[in-house]
Amino acid sequence: MDAYKQVQKGPLKLKGVTELGVTKRKKKKDKDKAKLLETMGKIQKNQEEELRRHLDKRTPAQVAFEKVQEKRQMERILKKASKTHKQRVEDFNRHLDMLTEHYDIPKVSWTK
User: Fold this and answer.
1) pLDDT for position 61
2) Calpha distance 22→13 (Å, rounded)
3) Could you tell me the pTM of the whole model?
């Protein structure tokens, strides 16, 4: 036990630093918080755009093809939405009236 009497029991002391000279630093107030937030927003938007570019592995031709497909699909939807159900049924009945008898279902009977 006598060998451990020389052990220091308090916090470590650094050379050249006096106990009175150690003070906490004051935090600097940011005068341009709005500017800082704006730059952070721009950085995040740029990062999101870069992620989209990296995730999108399509060629320009594929992108153009998909745009044309979407445009055609919208045209089809508008064309179908332009007629009411009643108008579609009338058109279908007119079409059936124009067909020849070849398309009629033949009678099947055993007795003739």
Assistant:
1) 94
2) 12
3) 0.35
